Amino acid sequence: MTRVVFLLVPQLHLLDLAGPAQVFSTAADLGHGYEIGYVAEQEDVPSAQGVTLRADTSWPALTADDLVVVPGWRSPTLGGSGALTPDTLQRLAAHHAAGGTVASVCSGADALGRAGLLDGRRCTTHHEVQDELAARYPRASVVPDVLYVVDDRVVTSAGIASGIDLALHLVAVRHGPSAAARIARSMVVYARRNGDERQASAMLRHRAHLVDAVHRVQDLIDTRFTNKLSLSDLSTAAGVSERTLTRRFTAATGLTPLRYQQELRLERAEHLISHGATSESAALAVGFQDARMLRRLRARA
């Protein structure tokens, strides 16, 4: 039996907690032997989403096989937020010193930093606070724009939904990739993502604009990027000429429609390759006729 203890901080984000908790709960249902507990410095813990949670104020006895997870909390900055007593921070440090694993989701990395667990280690957090984390803990090496980082039993993740990826990774390490895949299927989530995948997908990185016609074309490309799409078809969907679409699309996203489609294909192909696919099979799966174009795009990237 491995114990997974979540340390709850006031104003914690529910998904930071619920995502990993669901992974380990599902793993327990599948017979992998996890016992989940929740501790806090007060019995009633308000969440950022308005639901009050109940936790134990006494820590269970932990062994080196056990995991402590600190979910993130709502705050525009890390400084002055996520209040924890020195005794609680010392418990985090002591568990790691005894051979245990300590993990964080989103701003929970700041609690690990205050416990001294980020010094001399690679780590990450949500992209909105990663610069502040680096400034607060200059002895840490903050890795930007990745989903999670593992360094000497200190595991940090980007936040919100990436906590699911972190938990699935830990299950895969202990029980194998097939166990993690089975849990992902049970949870109806996308296949486990690698830690070094970017926090924002290509579909999200180029959506920070207010041009309705371009959004409509992006919606079409997003759902059919593995198909051959002509500029004529895209301009018809947008209700503008091909020249106008190219001009507006490039101004809004920094890419032509073709380059945007290629970026989606490349991102999906990289994911398939990272999970064991060959370049040839990945290229065919995303719509290329062969692997030559994929190799050129990967070399350019």
Automatic annotation (TrEMBL):
Record flagged with keyword Cytoplasm: no
Lineage top rank: taxon: Bacteria
SUPFAM superfamilies: Class I glutamine amidotransferase-like, Homeodomain-like
Upper taxonomic lineage: Bacteria, Bacillati, Actinomycetota, Actinomycetes, Kitasatosporales
Biological source species: Kitasatospora acidiphila
Keywords on record: Transcription, Transcription regulation
Protein name (database record): Helix-turn-helix domain-containing protein
Gene Ontology terms for molecular function: DNA-binding transcription factor activity; sequence-specific DNA binding
Keyword Transcription: yes
